[in-house]
């Protein structure tokens, strides 16, 4: 697939044009990153020339190393400008109630959240068994942070109707070992904003930091408010909010990966840093997890923000909100489907009320028609659902989606729901992760069409149905094993 030998390291070098042609051929199997029919993973502004500008800016700084800002002051200047812009959008900076907001540019939302947890943990060295309180709907990156940093995770259930945690439950979960309380603006799965003001108040009363994960919505909610959409308070205007994360490679439409982690003041940020001088090499000080960092993403983000400007983002948000409303109406018009929550951000989330309309089959039918959505498994009383991340690029195509959704739903209903063999269902309900042997994984993979594949199967409904039937711990192990089957070296 890469060359005759199947190796990325041929015996003799390959001409540049041939290499680029190989990359383009490989890209043909990917989901489309542009065109408004991919509702996850990528963010397309559909602004002419923006990609070319960002790529040119990226190239200008690709070889600049963020390890040492004294060697490359251009990168320091651009990073400070991005942090300042994010602070202003999120209610901080001069003339606000949070005039001393500082921050760092990271490689993405996960790194921002890990660092928010690290800063909170390291600020309380007297606590030997630190814990963080998170809604069950908080992004999985908090669980990753807890795992990496050896911090205990205390999830608070969300109401099955409002999809938000009860403030009283959050307050009850706070213990003397709690170093951080988390809320989402909005939650990724369903697109609803947690009661940030109330949660921040109970966190402050307990003397605990409160982080708002606005990685997904931090660049749209302020503009939605300016457009007249009722957006609850969630940013630095809320007393008790100590840090906020926002991804610029989402609705700021910068190339991946650029996120910003903001702290209300420099003292709150200080524990985020890692400094080390107890060795004979260069003195190390890092504000983020990486040491060496390419300046490319930062320069591309700087160019993107400068080019689009505040008025450009307001217009892009207006287009996005228009598309959200059109898509929501399309869901309402299909019998057997309903919205999981009324849209209040850039997410449309739907579920099925008809046992004969299998959502996982619906996802496959939409994919077959060129529309790519994100299935979400059932969890703790919440139904399986389909997530649509809506961007400005969707707006010109939104009107098409209604007829496509109706057609795909009819096809899914005609095909009928996925039915797993009774013995497989019994196995999924009783098997422990520890009992999942390589032989058993191989048998499951063969039965699901994953064995010997160079890539994922075209239809995923059977795989998703098996995962949906499994308890959470087994789901996690199955996911690891299945993805491990796909990620094998080409020699």
TrEMBL record:
One of its GO terms (molecular function) is transaminase activity. Keywords: Aminotransferase, Lyase, Pyridoxal phosphate, Transferase. Pfam families: Pyridoxal_deC. Its cofactor is pyridoxal 5'-phosphate. One of its GO terms (biological process) is carboxylic acid metabolic process. The keyword Transferase applies. The modification N6-(pyridoxal phosphate)lysine is found at residue 250. It comes from the Bacteria. This is Aspartate aminotransferase family protein. It comes from Micromonospora endophytica.
